[in-house]
Amino acid sequence: MRIDAESGEEAELAQVVAGKLKSLGLAVTQDDAGAKFGGNAGNVIGRLPGRVDLEPILLSAHLDRVPPGKGIKPVVEGDRIVSGGDTVLAADDLSGVVAILAGIRMARATKKELPPLEVVFTVSEEKGLKGAKYLDYSQIEAKRGFVFDSSSPVGVVILQSPTHVSMDVIITGKAAHAATNPGDGISAIKVAAETIRGFSFGRIDDQTTANIGVISGGVATNIVAEQVSFKGEIRSLDRDRALSLAKDCAERIDQTASRYGALAEVSTTVDYYGYTISRDAHVVKLAEKALSMSGKDAVYRSTMGGSDANVFNSMGLESIVLGMGAKDVHSTAESLPISELVAAGKLARCIILAGLGE
After folding, report:
1. Which domains does the chain have, with CATH numbers?
2. Is 78 exposed, middle or buried (0-12, 13-18, 19+ CB in 10 A)?
3. Phi-psi domain of 304 (left: phi exceeds 0; alpha: psi -120 through 50; beta: other)
4. Are 301 and 158 in contact (CB under 8 A)?
5. I need a labelling partner for 169 at 20 to 30 A (CA). Which of 110, 130, 232, 249 fits?
6. pLDDT tens digits for 204-259?
7. What single DSSP character describes residue 294?
8. Spatial separation of the C-alpha atoms in residues 119 and 56, rounded to whole Å
9. pLDDT tens-digit readout, 172-206
10. What sign results for the dihedral spanned by CA atoms 82, 333, 102, 286?
């Protein structure tokens, strides 16, 4: 946690975890993902050959953390780990990294032969899942994966995640003096306000949310604003619903701008596609078995957040996300119960051993 590793700046931490994987007997490479988006490190990929008659198991977590994530001073307070209060703790997602390393160490101490293991520690997950998007999938043989990256308690298995569509809008009107000849202008602010007024905020239905979170524009109070930009998002567990709503919003924005004589530039981008994993899927059954081995019951949930599992699933790597038990992530109040970290390590160990099919 003390190693600075905000998104795009994970090089030092990548070297440290690569060394730890090597000490556990894994062959380690680092792909060129970072070079593709301006980061200083690629994804760390570790491979441990195992019994050739068994399917490979992929274990994954991400190396980066959100700001303020530099100069972290972790402290043990009773039964939990906290930061000094002026930074995040980076339990999201170093708890996942540590759990995987501990799980491999314990599994190797338990059995001489293990199933083939693949470990992927991704970079820049917090900035658009970039590491997973640029991962060198030619190095991955596993068909099923476990992503250690949910703030839910250990025992929670995430089976469903939404499709996320972002919108970037620029409204261009016409500048004029706001006092002497306002009628010659077209206020981009007025047009933007009209389009936003018709936007559905918050929870649209039990599977869908929408929000506009950034807006900027204008130069001075005595100038009819010529340009305004705003950014929003739509998420839905129903992929078609997310795409349809984004299309409808873009069309309404364009129509409103045209009605005022303004120009609208609307860009919609699918940041990631959602997934739904059946409770009967082999990867889920393996997680269920591992949780039982570690003394926990599986609790199945959906989430409105995204993770590397969204990208993995879109690439045909069937993946679920597992709870790590961190509290108040993405804030300076973030903490990690030690019992949850221990439980996560045991779960990683049991997933590996459950892959033996014994």
Report:
1. 11-161+274-354 (3.40.630.10), 163-272 (3.30.70.360)
2. exposed
3. alpha
4. yes
5. 130
6. 999 999 999 999 999 999 999 999 999 999 999 999 999 999 999 999 999 999 99
7. T
8. 10
9. 999 999 999 999 999 999 999 999 998 889 999 99
10. positive
- pTM of the predicted structure, to 2 decimals: 0.94
Annotated active-site positions, please? 64, 125
Tell me how far apart the alpha carbons of residues 332 and 86 are, in angstroms, rounded to a whole number.
6
Q: Which amino acid is at 8?
A: G
Helix (H) or strand (E) holding 212: strand 208-217
How confident is the model over 285-304, as a mean pLDDT?
A: 97
| Residue 12 and residue 5 in contact, taking contact as beta carbons nearer than 8 Å | yes
Measuring CA to CA, which residue among 307, 325, 313, 314 is closest to residue 284?
313
Q: Which two tokens stand for residue 238?
A: 């129903």
Antiparallel, parallel or unpaired: β 163-172 and 227-236: antiparallel
